[in-house]
Each structure stands twice: as C-alpha cells, then as structure tokens.
User: What shape does this take?
Amino acid sequence: MTASLRDTRSAEHYERALAFLPGGVNSPVRAMRSIGRDPIFIDHAEGAELIDIDHNRYVDWVCSWGPLIHGHAHPQIVDAICDAARRGTTFGAPTVAEVDLAEEVGRRMPGVQMLRMTSSGTEASMSAIRLARAATGRTKLLKFAGAYHGHVDGLLADAGSGLATQGIPASPGVPAEVAASTIVIAWNDPAALAEAADAHEFAAILAEPYPANMGLVAPAVGFLEKLREAADANGALLIFDEVISGFRVGPGGAQGLTGVVPDLTVMGKVIGGGLPAAAFGGPRELMRHIAPAGDVYQAGTLSGNPLAVAAGLASLKLLDGEPPYTRLAATTAALATGLAGAAEAAGREDVQVSTATGLLTVFFSPSPVIDYAGAQACDLDTYAAWCRGLLARGVYAPASQFEAWFPSLAHTREHIDHTVAAATAAFAEIGA
Ligand SMILES: *Cc1c(COP(=O)(O)O)cnc(C)c1O
Assistant: This one.
C-alpha cells in the first residue's frame, strides 16, 4: 500500500545547498517544508513530466508555478530562445520583438494599450503601484487577505484587528509605517469593501481577479464588478494582478473572461514563456506617465530581455485562437472530476475541488473555501500527508495547501489517469 521515493542524491545536494543558500533554496515553497519533507532536485523535464536527480519521474502539476502553459521545453519555445540567444542575449537598447510582444498583449488584454516590461511580477506590481500613486496623488492601497502580489514591502501586510484598519507587517524587515498604508480586507466580502472605501481615499484597489495564492478562490458572482464600482466611487485606480490568471483563464485573462476591465494590469508568468519576464500596462494616457514619456521613474537592465521576449512571444502565439483554451478547460475539468471522484470514493467529506481554466486546488475543508480564513482553516496536516503520498506515486502536486495546481496543454489523458490512480491510493493511505 505504501509507496516511497528514492531521494539519496536530492538529500545529498540539499545538505550541500543548506550551506550556501538560505534554507537550501532560492524561493521558499521549493523547500517543501509545509508538507514535511526535504526538497527534490530536478534534473530535467519533458512536456508535463519532471525527472529528478534520483531518476524519479513525475507528472508535473506545478509547471514552475504558472509560466509553463505549454509544459516544459516546448520545441517551438526552445527554438525561439536559442535563435534569440545566438543573436545576442541583451543589448540595453530597443528590439523589434519587444514591440511585437507589447502589440500581442494589447490584442489580448482589454485593459492594456501600452505596457512596460520588467523581469519579475514583483517589480511589475511595485511599479504599477508607483504609477497609481503618482496618477492619483494618494498613498493608501487596498488589498485582500491571502492575495499575493510579489514580495513588495508595502504588500507584505496582514490585516490589522477590525475591519478597514491599517495593515501590519507580514514579515520582519517591513517597516510598520510602510505596511500601515495598506488596508487589508477579506476577499469576497462586499460589506468590508464598502466600509474600507468609505473610510479611506485609496490610490489603488489591488486584486488578483482569480486569487490563486491561497489556493484558488474564485470571485463570487458580481464581486469583480463591485471592485470596479468601488474604485470609481472612491477615485482609486483598479489594479488587476493577472500574473497567474493572464493568458491562462482565457486569452484575455480574467478581464477578458468577465468583462471587468481594470485601470492597470500586472502580468507575469505565462508572458515570459518560462523565462524571467513580467509587465504592467493600461490605457495610453495613464502609461504615458512612465519615464521617459512622463516623470514616473521606472527602469531595468534586463527589462524586455531578448530571450524572455522571444519565449513570451512564442508562448502567446501558440495560444492563438480558441482550441488551446478549450483543451486546457477540458484537461482541468477532467482532472477536477477525477480528483473529486477519488475523494468521494474514499468517503472523504472534507475535500473541495476548486477550478478555473488552467487552475485547480484540492482544499481539505468540509465546506467551499471563499476567502483566506477558509483556506487557513483547512486541514494542512492531511493535505501534507496526501501530497507526500502523491509524490511517492510519481505525481508532483504543489507542496502547499495554499498554491494552485497548473494544468497545461502538455498534460494528456494518461497523465490525468495516472494522477487519479495515485490520488485514490494516497487517499486510502491517509485514511478517513
Ligand atoms: C507569482 C506572482 C507574483 C510575483 O511574481 P514574481 O515573478 O515571482 O515576482 C505576483 N502576483 C501574483 C498573482 C503571482 O502569482
């Protein structure tokens, strides 16, 4: 019944890594601490499969946490990167492909006429906030508990006590006065939104339209429209952080899907095709505040990097037309149905499967999760045990209850069947 994983070489290199990298990794979730095991070192990957340095092969549902909508090492994306690399890796001067990419993004995203590229989503949201503050002459931000917009100081804020009160630092090193200009309220809570909008003048209301950093917690019907109305009434800009949802839940992200168009859009992950690229964009009149068109300073040595732009362009072009999204939706739905069926067959009444196209979360919760409090109330130990059971059976699922699964266009029926079989065995192993 129990399965196990060979991990001698990963263990060896983790030991070495601990001496040179904090926690042995370059980003915390990779350490797998929240599922109570040591990290797995990757050797290489093909399509939807990951091969570690101990030669274990996994169906990869993490796909680098979002960028790899076409799976790993898609030949057309790799060719585009190699062609670009041979022409020079960076110039610090404009290239034609940057304009092509901006045009491609503008064609897809209803709220984006003009954009500025950055190397990471963190930088893009930091810069979007600077622009919102410059454009409104205001300082305060409204964000939602459980939303992640990169590790920007002012956004690493937790809710203070009571509704619509100033935020408190969510990490040592974040100055209290910086966190205090961020107000944090519960997602999907129109009353809290109304109260906060009454009490403060915001530079921006910042939201992941399909929050996926507390597990996937879709917006309640009409909630995104309420954000738009609240921002307009308040005089704040509405910023959608579509770093995950952009080009994933549909060609035009959440804004294309719902018709709720923000003032500024933050993009990342898919836009870089697996290389470091991100962007923020909006209407021309707003974006022309950015230097050198305007006086809001923003810059980057590797922004619009030729390799990343080539990968992003190739990735977007492979998404052209309806079929890729129909297929991604079908893959997501088949996985969701299979996992929900496995949970039901195991007699589990505490499993909720939340989905949007290209996104999924299995919550260990007796009732549907609608906000961060609900996500935090999940049975994290049981998730951890189930997730370890999946890994041992060749299924690489997010090593945290608070991260989404990322179905890709490289996942096949066989990958889903293997995953559902592993899920069934892992449910049996952890007991009811
Ligand atoms: C990943 C992520 C970011 C940060 O992007 P980085 O490239 O990791 O800095 C911002 N917002 C959301 C919604 C994300 O998922």
